[in-house]
Hints:
The chain is an alpha+beta fold and 672 residues long. The protein has helices spanning 156-163, 169-184, 309-351, 359-397, 470-491, 513-518, 528-551, 580-592, 617-622, 656-671; strands spanning 3-5, 10-12, 17-35, 47-48, 54-55, 58-59, 65-73, 83-89, 107-112, 117-122, 131-140, 143-153, 188-190, 232-234, 425-432, 441-446, 453-456, 497-502, 566-574, 598-604, 624-626, 631-635, 642-647.
Amino acid sequence: MTAELVRGQNHPLSQVRLEIRVSAGTPLVAAAALSDENGRIHGVEWVAHPGAPTQPGLEVSRQAAADHRLAVDLDAVPEAVHRVGVLLALPAAGPGPARFGAVAAPFVAVTGLDGAEIASYTITGLEAESAVVALELYRRQGAWKVRAVGQGYAGGLAELLTDQGLPQAHQLAGGIDDAVARGLARSVQAPAPRTADGDRSRQAAAPALGPDQGGSAPQPGQAPPTSPYGGQMSGGPGQPAPQTPSYPGPVPDTDAVTQPSTPTAGGPIDYSHPRRRNAAPPPPPPTAPPAAPGQPAQPVAGDATGWSMDERLYNQVWGMFEDLARTAAAYRSAVDFAESRMDKELEQVLSDPRSRIGGQGDAAREAARARHAQLVAQAGEALDRDLAQLAAEAEVVEPALPPAYARWDSPVWHAYRVPMEIPMALRLGDLHLPEADGIRIPMLVRLPLERGLWIDSGRTGSSDGSFADSHARGRLAMETAVAHAARLLAVYPAGEFTVHVIDPAGSGAQPLAPLVQTGVLAAPPALGPAGVADVLARLTQRVDLVQMAVRGGAADSLPPGFDTSQHLLIVNDFPHGFDDRAVNQLRYLADEGPAFGVHLMMVADREESSGYGPLLDPLWRSLLRLTPVPDDHLADPWVGHAWTYEPSLVPPGSQVLQQVLTKVAAARTKYV
């Protein structure tokens, strides 16, 4: 029976090999610290954290996530250790909430390797704190116990570690922040927050998961969850909210907002405040008869909650992504448990001299292997069942997706018309896991883009062995960038999205041909150092003007005829043609541009810019890295799986790109 602890309460532990499960409504950093009988941490090697996830008897997550599973083996910790503390903190990097008072109360559970809960604790009563000691496992008279602590620190991890006597507290906290920032840079954008009444009702048969995997909906006034990594999966309270009137999400917490919330005067210049409804979205209409008892429900496109079909499909796609992440996590956890149990049983057989040889030992080993095979088979059956339901859902959802969410080979593009409204999100590719290689989940990012994109033209660990030479890599990366830019132009209303291109050496002329020939660019691609300086100066000046207008609440004071559309700058072959001034301007656009209508798309090999040293590290971390070939470099915000990303490319020989861009150009001519 689970012991539901309150602050200060303790409970005996009957097992030494444990799992600490953490669940929160927003990504958290999880760490574990070893300390002596006085609660003092002797050195940095006594702390397991994302930068050093494994220490004696401890293993923690490598990145920030909404769900964590920490492995603890109390028999493996050093004899000098008397306490094991579970530490949680809000990421210092990224636009997420800065205090626990702005997020749902984190839930922590201590379980056995079989998943059975031993004790749980909901950490309540936190306000300004950004780090907390959640639980403490401690020795008492030769046995181990767990105590609910809930001690928070407004000064973050540095203050927490200092309070526990670690001399290098500030250095270690800085190292943890850097490790988390690197994880954020490779994460998928977090899905939109859902109110309690608006939670998506899933029809797929779900695996048996602990309460930590159920997540928790954001509370009223809570900042939307951000990606660990961001994915950012891109949303974030410190960035402008999508300008979609139908989006019902809660207003971000004011402490986490970096720009004034006063709406500006009219028009698409309103980058600072979401036009949102605060009520829960209506449930989906019944579109299919209920399933027969004992049979899975038939999947239906748009069966999630939302104010419009666009929003329902968006929520449904993210529900599928979350279901697949948790289903795979449950399967992996079950397999890990089966292997751990078999190892323990075999160890017991070998530890007894009487059973090492002879028929008794052989029988015990065969029995252990048989139990392992049975557990793995049961986990596989549950996985197959859930994947079959998800595959059936994907088959009905994919054909129903609108152009903003659809693949380039979808028939929906044949009936394309320039839209009158901005969609909620944009598809940048597909995501899949090795357990479900046949299921592709669309990777959707919110609009307007809340962080820049980096199309990596360098050598990657691509799964198909592509990128044979640097020229082929650069060309394929540029084709990917053009496909993304074309989709952005296609999903915005006429005149509300403008694309600029910097191609100093002219190496991207052939991939850029569809954009140049159809006339959808604001101007021909800028060439040479002079062209680089001119484009960067104009866009930097634009960001400065809009920033002053928005923050001063005087958007109507902008110059007459000022272009209030969203702008995208594509930079090819960086850092060729860039001097120090241009590099600083580029960093400025990456940091400040998205909040004020200027977005960045880099096509670059990071190694080629290594001459600038660590100066450009913040730039790369601020961008969402995408690859022109399949690569397993993105993570989800729930359990941190490494997802394989596949770019959304135009099929070879297809004319869909030219046809769509021609319609965009014609609509722009009429608009002007």
